[in-house]
Amino acid sequence: MVGYRSSMIPYSPNGGKMIAGRRGVAVHVYADYRRGRVFVVGRLDDGRSFAAEDAAWRPTVYLRSGDAESERVRALGLRFMPCALAALDGTALASWTAPGFGAYRDVTERLGALGMAAHGGGGLADLYRADRRLGLGVRVSGEERPGRRVDAVIADAAVEADDGADAPLSVLSLDIETDESDRSVRAASLSMADWSPAESRLMKRDGSTMVLMVPAPGAVGPGAGHREGFDAIVCRDERDLLASLGERIVALDPDILTGWNVVDFDLARLVERAEARGMVFDAGRSSDAAKVLPKGRGRTATAIVPGRQVLDAMRVARSGPERYDDYTLETVARRALGRGKGTSLRGAAKLAELDRMYHDDPEAFAAYSAEDAALVLDVLEGTGLFALTVARAALVGIGLDRAWTSVAAFERAYGEALRSRGVAAPPFTQGRDVSGAAGGTVLPAAAGYREGVVVLDFKSLYPSVMRTFCIDPLANARAGAADDIVAPNGARFAREPDGARWPLPDLVDSYFARREEAMARKDATGSYVYKILMNSFYGVLGTSSCRYARTELAGAITSFGRLVLLRAKACIEREGPSVLYGDTDSLFVATGLGPDAEYRAYRERGDALCRLVNEELAEMAEREYGVRSRLELRFDKAYARFVIPPLRFAEEADVDGADGEPAIARGRSKGYAGLLRGPKEDPGGDRVDVKGMEAVRSDWTPLAREFQLRLLDMVFSGAAEPDVGAYIASILNALERGELDARLVYTRALRRSASAYLKSTPPHVKAARLAGMTGRGSVSYVLAADGPAPVDPDGYGASGPGSPRPDYRHYVAKQLLPIARSLAASGLAVPLSPFGLESPQPELF
Fold first, then answer.
1. Which range among 338-352, 607-621, 690-704, 794-808 has the greatest average pLDDT?
2. DSSP string of 443-487, one letter each residue
3. Beta partners for 144?
4. C-alpha span between 333 and 533 (Å, rounded)
5. What burial letters (b/e) apply to 249-261, b meaning 16+ CB within 10 Å?
6. How many Cα atoms within 13 Å fall on the side-chain side of residue 826?
7. Cα separations (Å) of 751 from 554, 755, 764, 773, 776?
8. Are the beta carbons of 668 and 447 closer than 8 angstroms?
């Protein structure tokens, strides 16, 4: 780890044996400044843990030749030599190899004071990885001896890159319970799992779950020994718990420590409490203490446990493909696994219940703690997130802890591509003015009901734009010729050298090819990882934390994307069909086919339009830019019936009561529904598909979501208006009788703590304050006559003593009526008479 001082991992004085090219996984790579060597620590393919000690590598400083030859540099007593690397703009570089790590740090600091930043820079571990081209997989050669905290120490090792990452890994989940009155640790739970690369599965280790606990004063139990699902270990006091916990982790020897918010909470608190007790929290593969580096500008908090990686499961879930109402373990587990920790209490109520259990029912408290640790492993396996993390780290060539960091992934992949072309990575410049990546182009949506709509979308539009128009930091730095490619936003890119590709287009080309190969062999994980990697590059180029980012680079991508979308729209509409809506890479086209047409007819019409567009875009790319098009519009899906609600009703229906704007015929962007038409052989048949409307928004009540889905299903299936009206009336009557109370619970997320809302206090914030919530998360509540009232979503429903009675008029006015009005105004047969209203005039739309 960058800048981390570690004692050498000791090994026994017994003789060793030579190994050559032993494959393994590099779990942790870090530099020991004091001893001047790099350690690569991980797991060999035979299952043994190892520490490879590379004492031969020395870091190199690269400067522009003009700077290297200046009097100021000569005055430092440094002699830079010509080298084969150049700067991004083509300027020749000179190099100086440091005799040791301390000298490297001293020289780079002194050069920085002179205003000269080193090229190809970074932390020593990153430099080592770049020089050795190390990814997750490695091959290790050298003399092997038994170690004290690892199975094998390879001194004076030769470490080489290996394409595979096939070693088994062990994963230990950690969770602690605390007393917030004095910040002490009451209990710690551990649960172990093993990663099988052959099966791509994370398998929990039987009998590995344990709870270490300091009993409450005067409490009876828990006694030490085995329980159903876990072992209980009684500790004398907090000091004993901290020491025992570290010893248990060392004995289990996991490659990866995980947990839910394990960096910011669990490990941070363990380190804090150890220091408060005059101890070190010793849980690594060396005797050095674990530490947590606090978050800083543009950097999240980082945990360092020597020789292991810390993988925060909550951060992984936030980065993964699924979106959740909030990212508490309870919410994610219930959605992913169908079960949670056994309580839906939050905030002060949850803390009070845990405190009661600790003092009055320690057996239940211990069982709760054990489930916390075990549940994290179930989530990582059940969601496939651990498999995705390993695949992403292996494919990009970065550590597991940074597998989901887009900037690190891009800089690693692009930096290696530059190096292979004789170009060093540029220095990172603080305080650069990078305005960020703009959003995609959204074409105005035409509100109303249509029949026979097809959706056409571009295959990975932004990566295809990079491939087609040579969007590349190196090409941008080398621009300046009359024949440059000029993006619509004015950014310039040099043309590719004869017979060669610029690094970024070439990299994306390779990812496209590898994704196709993964799809052909039905490797869903590999296909997804390549897709997400390619799509992240656009955002990275507009992020100030990336050394390659520039505002014009991200702007060039979006400006070309807009050009492509508008050209495609114009081409389609010249053929007769109308484009109802467009968003970034998709076009919604009214084909003129009726709702009874078969899927094949929709597909043939869509494919024909795609061929026309692709041919026109290829001609445009060649004629106007002199490049070969990699743009591909494809048929995505077909709707027999389709509706885009009018914008006015989307705004009137805001659950917090925002005022609506004047009626306009524009449709709601990113919100539509349709009857999806599939092939005859599709066993699912036609089905209602909803995007961006109330039925799929978590901040609407379950009743509202069910109501909208049922209305859409009825009208798309041809139900008569009186039948639809009868359904609406039945819902209103059941609501008034209190039969639907369980479906009236709002669940809203707080993006910051409830106390941080100062300018306004929306209902969910009021409910959170009443519930005693202190941090971020989600709150469940009902709207009663006197305002929001927090409730337990699992237990609410049968109105009784102490149960808040919903304000039914609110739910009619703010949840049911806006949905019905929106669909009626779109031209669907949804009567408003059950609400005592007339339907809107169709000529408005």
1. 607-621
2. EPPB-EEEEEEEEEEETTHHHHHHHHHT--HHHHHT--STT-EE-
3. 17, 154
4. 26
5. bbeebbbbbbbbb
6. 34
7. 27, 11, 11, 12, 6
8. yes
Distance CA 227, CA 772 (A): 33
Q: Are 107 and 61 in contact (CB under 8 A)?
A: yes
- Helices 362-382 & 347-360, crossing angle to 10 degrees? 130
Print the domain residue range for 445.
421-644
Q: Helical H runs in 20-93?
A: 65-68, 71-74
pLDDT digits (tens, 9 = 90+) for 122-147: 789 999 998 999 889 999 999 999 99
Q: C-alpha 88: how far from its chain's center?
A: 30
- 159 forms beta bridges with 140
User: Does residue 799 sit in helix, strand or coil?
Assistant: coil
Are residue 541 and residue 588 in the same domain, yes or no? yes
Helix H or strand E segment including 202: strand 201-204
The gap between the terminal CA atoms of the chain, to the nearest Å, is: 62
The answer to the question of residue 414 being in a domain is no
Listed residue (651, 649, 644) closest to 446, CA to CA? 644
Q: How far apart are CA 735 and CA 274, in angstroms?
A: 56
| In contact, 678 and 599? CB cutoff 8 Å | yes
Among 62, 82, 58, 63, CA closest to 132: 58
**Element (DSSP H or E) covering residue 153:** strand 152-161
633 and 499 together in one domain: yes
Q: Which helix (H) or strand (E) holds 135?
A: none
Structure tokens belonging to residue 642:
């389709």
The rounded distance, in Å, linking the Cα atoms of 109 and 403 is 29
Asked whether residue 213 falls in the same domain as residue 339, the answer is yes
Count of domains forming the chain: 4
Residues 372 and 299: their CA atoms lie apart, in Å, by 27
Q: Which of 146, 369, 386 is nearest to 245 (CA)?
A: 369
Q: Are strands 225-227 and 230-234 parallel, antiparallel or unpaired?
A: antiparallel
Alpha-carbon distance 748 to 700, whole Å?
Answer: 9
**Of the candidates 458, 476, 459, the residue with the CA atom closest to the CA atom of residue 414:** 476
153 and 191 together in one domain: no
Q: From CA 806, how far away is CA 816, in angstroms rounded? A: 14
Claim to verify: residue 529 and residue 449 sit in the same structural domain: yes
Query: Can you give the pTM of this predicted structure?
Result: 0.87
639: closest CA among 671, 680, 708, 591? 591
DSSP for residue 834: G
Amino acid 380: pLDDT: 96
Q: Are residues 509 and 525 in the same domain?
A: yes
Identify whether 804 is preceded by a cis peptide bond (ω within 30 of 0): no
Q: Which long-range contacts (CB under 8 A, 24 or more apart) does 506-511 make?
A: 506/417, 507/413, 507/414, 507/417, 508/463, 508/466, 508/467, 508/534, 508/537, 509/467, 511/463
Separation of alpha carbons 625 and 628, rounded Å: 9
Residues facing 666 on adjacent strands: 446
Helix orientation angle between 721-736 and 702-716, rounded to the nearest 10 degrees: 160
What angle (nearest 5°) sits at the alpha carbon of residue 730, between those of residues 725 and 736?
Answer: 130
Query: Which residue in the block uniquely carries the two structure tokens 């081209």?
Result: 133
Tokens encoding 436: 């960020």
Q: Which of 672, 712, 664, 715 is nearest to 693 (CA)?
A: 672
For 621-664, the pLDDT digits (tens) are 999 999 999 999 999 999 999 999 987 544 444 434 333 333 33
Q: What is the pLDDT of residues 582-627, one digit of tens each?
A: 999 999 999 999 999 999 999 999 999 999 999 999 999 999 999 9
Alpha helix ranges (H) inside 521-598? 524-540, 551-574
Q: Which conformational region is residue 655 in: left (phi greater than 0), alpha (psi within -120 to 50 degrees), or beta?
A: alpha
Residue ending a domain, choose from 358, 380, 396: 396
